[in-house]
Amino acid sequence: MNTRKFMNRQKLLIDDTISALLLIIIIYLIIFNIKLAIMSLAVYPFFSLLVYGFYRAYKSIFDRNLKFIFRVLNISFGIASIMFSSNFIDSLLTHPKTPTSFTIYLLGMPIFLIGLAGLLKGLIVNVYTPNFRILNVLIGALTIFFAVFAIVYVEIGFIFHLFTLLTTLTLNGILRSALYLSEYGLKLKNLKNLKLVWFIMDNLPLQLEENQIKP
């Protein structure tokens, strides 16, 4: 069954745009910087595993429908994923033969796409609250600026680039969560609603019980 026809066309347009741009970046790296391309193939999957580990651990704690044995399995797998992937990424990036500029490149490229996605969603998708759309446009534009600046001037101020990239990434995470929740009339100030962001990001049908939702 094709679920795309049930999804918001504006959201799909942005997802397709980001996917196309990601493909262009990959092709560019393969042609002009094969070493960085290979490094990306190693780092990004393990970073995804790191995020997935946090998700499994989070699910084991907050999903009330899970039986005890599944809670134990989820949190065990989550912790193992976090430890293994973080150690692998750390050993790869801190290797003596790995240029420090690669850390900024590997951070800057996905953060650029995250900022662009926030900018486009704020501009195009009209199902969100206007205030959060404006905030996401602003932080998206700021994120794009700092990401491009870090990539272009990678040799200047490693700590500064690292700080600005991680700061804008954190702000994007907070404001994007608030943006997604606003579609359903929810507010981020109620931390219980934060767990719903995972389901919204996955484009899954939301079965929202009244005791879970507190605007």
How many domains? The number is 2
Major beta-sheet overview:
none
Number of strands: 0
Q: Ranges with pLDDT <50 over ≥5 residues?
A: 204-215
What is the CA–CA distance across the termini?
Answer: 33 Å
Number of distinct helices: 7
Global outline: globular
Overall mean pLDDT stands at 84
Give the gist of this structure:
The protein has helices spanning 9-32, 34-62, 68-93, 100-124, 130-152, 158-182, 196-201.
Structural account:
- This protein has 215 residues and is mostly helical.
- The protein has 2 domains: 8-98; 99-204 and 211-215, no CATH class.
- The chain is built from 7 helices and no strands.
- The protein has helices spanning 9-32, 34-62, 68-93, 100-124, 130-152, 158-182, 196-201.
- The longest helix is centred in the first third of the chain and has 29 residues, at 34-62.
- 22% of the residues are buried.
- Mean pLDDT is 84; it is low at 204-215.
Please tag this protein with its features.
single chain, mainly alpha, 2 domains
Fold topology:
Layout: H1 9-32, H2 34-62, H3 68-93, H4 100-124, H5 130-152, H6 158-182, H7 196-201
Helix pairs in contact: 1-2, 1-4, 2-3, 4-5, 4-6, 5-6
